[in-house]
Amino acid sequence: MPGAAIFSVAAGNRFRRIHVQGKASLNMRTFSTKKLVVTAAVAAVLVGTGTAAFAYWTSRGTGTGSATTAADATTLLVEQTSKVTNMFPGDAAQDLVINVTNPGPNMVQIAGVDAIATVKQADGAVGTCDPSDYQVNNKPLDRSGVVTLNWDAVELDAKAAQDSVNDVHFFNKGTNQDGCKGATLNFQYTAR
Q1: For residue 92, which of 170, 176, 182 has the smallest C-alpha distance?
Q2: DSSP secondary-structure letter at 178?
Q3: What is the enclosing helix (H) or strand (E) of 43?
Q4: CA gap 87, 58 in Å, rounded
Q5: Rg (CA), the chain
Q6: In angstroms, rounded to a whole number, what is the distance separating the alpha carbons of residues 87 and 134?
Q7: Rounded-to-integer distance, Cα 16 and Cα 30, Å
Q8: Could you tell me which residues are beta bridge partners of residue 16?
Q9: How far apart are CA 76 and CA 190, in angstroms?
Q10: What are the tens digits of pLDDT across the range 18-46?
Q11: CA 2, CA 116: separation in Å to the nearest integer?
Q12: Do 132 and 142 contact (CB within 8 A), yes or no?
C-alpha cells in the first residue's frame, strides 16, 4: 500500500524507535503511564495553588528583660496636730493627736505609732522632772518615756492620712513635783 506507514517499535527503556516503511527511523521519547499520572498531579496542584511557592527559614534566638521595684516608700510625715498646754497636778486630760500622712505614690503598711517622751526643765527649776511625771492614755510613763500610741494597723493609700488619737495629762504622784514647773514635755514620734 503506497503511502501507508508501517510502524515497528524497538524495545528500550526511555526511547522507542519507530520505523516507518520507506522512511528513516525516528527516536521518540515516551512516558510511562505512572510518570504521566505523577506529572499531571503536580501540574494540577500548582495550578490549584496559583502556582505559588512558600519557603521559610527556621531560627532560634534569646533575649533578656527586666523590671524594677521602688527602692523604698516615701518617708511618712508624722506630726502632732493638737496643742497641749498648762498641765499641772490634778488637771484634766488633753487631746494628743498625731497625724500620719503618706505623701508618696505607693500604698504603705503602718502597724503602729510609737513615741519617746523627754522632759526639758525650765531654767532654775528646783527638783527633778522626767517622763514618769506624765500620763498618756491614763497610764503613767516610765522614766524611759517610751509609749505605744493608739493606732489601728492600716494600709495607708498614696496621699492619704490617718490620726492617732490619745490623751495626755500631768500625773499627780502625791509628792513634791516643783521640778516640773515650767517644764516642756517633748515627744519624738515614729510610725512603723
Answers
A1: 170
A2: G
A3: helix 33-48
A4: 85
A5: 52
A6: 9
A7: 7
A8: 28
A9: 9
A10: 555 555 555 555 556 666 666 666 666 66
A11: 136
A12: yes
Residues 6+ apart with CB under 8 A from 140: 132, 134, 171
Q: What is the pTM of this model?
A: 0.64
Res. 123: pLDDT tops 50: yes
Query: Any idea which residue has 514618769 for its cell?
Result: 132
Question: φ, ψ for residue 101 (rounded to 5)?
Answer: -120, 135
**DSSP 8-state assignment for residue 86:** -
Banded model confidence at residue 9, pLDDT cuts 50, 70, 90: very low
Which residue do the cell numbers 513635783 mark? 177
Closest CA to 164 of 186, 145, 137: 137
For 56-114, the pLDDT digits (tens) are 777 787 777 777 676 666 899 999 999 999 999 999 999 999 999 999 999 999 999 99
Answer whether 42's CB lies under 8 Å from 61's CB. no
| Residue 58 and residue 130 in contact, taking contact as beta carbons nearer than 8 Å | no
CB atoms within 10 A of CB 86: 7
